[in-house]
Write a structure and sequence with these properties.
By secondary structure, this protein is α+β, with helices and mostly antiparallel strands. Helix content is 19%, strand content 28%. The protein is elongated.
């Protein structure tokens, strides 16, 4: 597989190089360095400030050489029942089980819990993924949320203002009820600009409303469109550029 050329400067931080090689976000790569599983020219490195010259130095993670492959960007409709992890010790179904056997090494940009479905971005570009996920860049994520009952008016206001849960303040950017006829419950369109673990489910639970179904339909300008559960496609260059924040 052809390797992508790295732009100047010739020296870059080790965690940035690892992220560019598709080993996860920069923060995840910092954790790898801290664990002592990264070696440069045969020597284990644990210092986060180390810079390397990829054209002159060799990098290994857990004994395996690291190279920078051409970047790939996919969109997957993750069905319920699959988890967003690359390897699961409990042998549960993961997003990888939905991809072809010859798919490049990809990791998810953000997560959807096992009981949630919808748009999941996949890439081997750690820098691109980091900028999408970082709250500083305010990339919107939009969801359709089905509930067991309608939200009281006071609860709607509360979700916008913020709810304290487990030491975190959770809130929505926007929330509106969908005009859908339902035998029971209700459906809402929810937009977030940050994503904490089980963010929406915890928010609704805090106001005594249960989420019965959750589907992510948009990240930034990229929409789920007509994909069906389990289907995937390659993002266009325009779509990738639209989510790429100036560095």
């Amino acid at each position: 597989m052809a390797c992508a050329k790295l732009s100047p400067p010739s020296e870059i931080r080790l965690q940035k190089f690892l992220a560019s090689a598709g080993l996860g976000s920069r923060r995840a790569c910092e954790r790898l360095i801290g664990l002592g599983v990264v070696a440069v020219d045969g020597r284990v490195v644990t210092d986060q400030g180390v810079k390397i010259n990829p054209s002159r130095q060799s990098v290994m993670v857990e004994g395996c050489p690291v190279t920078v492959d051409a970047h790939v960007y996919w969109l997957l409709y993750k069905p319920t029942g699959y988890i967003c992890t690359c390897d699961d010790p409990d042998q549960r179904a993961t997003f990888r089980d939905l991809l072809p056997s010859d798919a490049p090494r990809l990791f998810p940009v953000g997560r959807l819990d096992r009981d949630s479905e919808g748009l999941l971005l996949l890439t081997n570009d750690g820098e691109w993924a980091q900028h999408i996920q970082h709250p500083r860049y305010v990339v919107e994520k939009e969801y359709l949320v089905w509930t067991d009952r309608a939200l009281p008016i006071t609860a709607t206001r509360q979700l916008r203002q913020g709810v304290e849960d487990r030491g975190e303040t959770l809130r929505v950017k926007s929330l509106r009820r969908e005009p859908r006829k339902m035998a029971t419950g209700a459906c809402y369109r929810v937009v977030l600009t940050e994503g904490r673990n089980r963010h929406i489910r915890r928010l609704f639970s805090a106001v005594a409303v249960q989420v019965t179904r959750l589907r992510r339909v948009r990240v930034g300008s990229i929409k789920l469109g007509g994909l069906r559960p389990g289907q995937y496609r390659v993002l266009t260059a325009t779509e990738v550029a639209a989510l790429r924040v100036s560095r």
